[in-house]
Amino acid sequence: MSHSIIRSRRFWFGVSYFIGLVIISYLFTWFGKDLYSNTQLLLKNEDGDVIQAAPFNPLIMPPFGSDRSGYNLFFQLIIGAKFTILFVLGICLIQILIGTLLGGALAYTSSKLQSFVQKVFKPYFFIPTVLWGIMWMAPLMLESQQTGLSMSIIGKQFFILCIVTLPPVIIYISQEINLFMKNEYIISSVLLGASKFYLFRRHIWLYLKEILVILFLQQFVQLFTLLIHLAFFEILIGGRRMSSDLKVFSLTNEWSSLIGLNKNELLMAPWLVLAPLLFFTISIFVLHLMIQGIKEQYNTRFISNDKKKSGERSSFEAKYQKMKVDKSSFARMNLNSIYREKDN
């Protein structure tokens, strides 16, 4: 799978996209404070008369307009990119790591225990993940209004989202391993005495590498969607603060928080919601490109291996057919004389 990733241009395009966004976000945070901290509430003409108040549309303040507080929406999205991408990236890494360990351990247990675990988690799957997130993360929003931006709150949110999204990953990986274990050559290895560790190291892990990268990117997409759903209930990553006039602000400018805080502006100032949605849409599209690129490279490698094997088989058959075998190639032997020689 490593060779498939290296050769996939779509994959590296996606990696460059996300790394570039994070780097630009940090550069703006460190050196562009004058750009994103300035506000403009009123727009005046040459005579000094007020002609429009914030929020300004994208034509007046390109490229994405401003919010009601006069902050440039584009700079807010750039500042929040690092929180959005790195937060989701960390959760996905933990999911894949713990999911592989627990899923692999579950796959090696008895079928009765696996069936019991699946029955225990089955009711969990019928409850939307967003409801679990709301239930556990809502109290943190009240805490953030008192303490401000805190790594403690971000850590708690990180832990909660890891827990609520982990069970499906564990079950999926265990089922994939069980399905793979039904292959004939795996059954033959078991009958020949192969240990569980040997099977995992030489066979199962090679198979899992083919799906874990794709699963990682798919979880990235699902977490983006989950953050958007949570934001509509004002569950914001990093917390929120409330001004003296009871306006709610995000502490991190994370993309989904900008959607949730401006959802009521959809009719009056739709760009406040559409701009962060555009960033999410582009990012999800890039993730799908990465997945397709990896799958295409894997399929290409699989087909080329099949062609190579078929070519070797056909060359062997051609050589075999060229061999001329007739009666003169054999000598008639008497079995009795052979046995007599052995006795002597």
Automatic annotation (TrEMBL):
According to the record, the segments passing through the membrane are 12-32, 73-102, 123-142, 154-173, 211-237, 271-291
SUPFAM superfamilies in the record, alphabetically?
Answer: MetI-like
Source taxon at top rank: Bacteria
Domain ABC transmembrane type-1: start-end pairs: 81-291
Q: What is the protein's membrane topology class?
A: Multi-pass membrane protein
Q: Where is the signal peptide?
A: none
InterPro entries found in the cross-reference section: MetI-like, MetI-like_sf
Entry keywords, A to Z: Membrane, Transmembrane, Transmembrane helix, Transport
Give me the Gene Ontology terms describing cellular component.
Answer: membrane
Please provide the Gene Ontology terms (biological process) for this protein. Answer: transmembrane transport
| PROSITE patterns cross-referenced by the UniProt entry | ABC_TM1 (PS50928)
Where found in the cell? Membrane
**Protein name (Swiss-Prot/TrEMBL):** Peptide/nickel transport system permease protein
